[in-house]
Amino acid sequence: MQAIVAALAEQQAELQGLLDGLDDARWATPAPACPGWTVADVVLHLAQTDELGAASAHHRFGGSADRPAGTAARGSTVDDAAAAMVERERGAPSAAVYTRWQDAAAAERAALAACDPHERVMWVAGDMAARTLATTRLSETWIHTTDVAEALGIALEPTERLWHVARLAWRTLSYAFARAGRSLTGPVAAVLVAPSGARWDFDPDGDPVTTVRGDAVEFCRVAGRRLDPAQTSLVATGPDAETVLALVRTYA
What we know:
Layout: H1 2-19, H2 24-27, H3 39-57, H4 68-73, H5 78-89, H6 94-113, E1 120-123, E2 126-129, H7 130-152, H8 162-171, H9 173-179, E3 188-193, E4 199-202, E5 210-215, H10 216-223, E6 235-237, H11 241-247
Parallel strand pairs: 3-5
Antiparallel strand pairs: 1-2, 3-4, 5-6
Helix pairs in contact: 1-6, 1-7, 3-5, 3-6, 3-7, 7-8, 8-10
């Protein structure tokens, strides 16, 4: 658990490095990966969801209708619910948005660090292990860090933190298939090349019937809905090959 929280802290620090010193005009820069949102909106979204992450770790993730799960339950998607949350609260000064996110990020880290990794907590997708929630928060922070960097015209070097993101995407394939009303034919393995050039093997308990091979960064970006599998070098073989790449995801 501590390794994941440490990776989350490093990811938040990378985002903070992008945001430090931005003027209001840069905060208002459109974020191409999040249509209709600015950099400020992306950071507001992270502040909102980090606050929910801290509440979840403290077992105070409520049932009010304005949380993403409640909104999605009324017929919209989770993305629709997140957009509605941002719409309700956008417009605050950029300095206030930045401070709110920093406070929320720190509170979330502290709350997650105090959890047993196997402790069950509530989230948008239902109850999950605290370790899974922490990894989900790392994944979302990484995704939106890259969104902000793209908006600002900054190229980021991928890090070994992505091991946690890749593992999350691989481990939750059954959940991704279930959300789509599908079932896996059998176990899936992933053989990925890390940013360092090392090999990351994610092996199921049983013999895999489908295997995904290729670049770990591409795999994570596909799972984060930031890259079309057809635009990558990823190769999948087996009965679920095409569907795995279409459905893999890193968030609820």
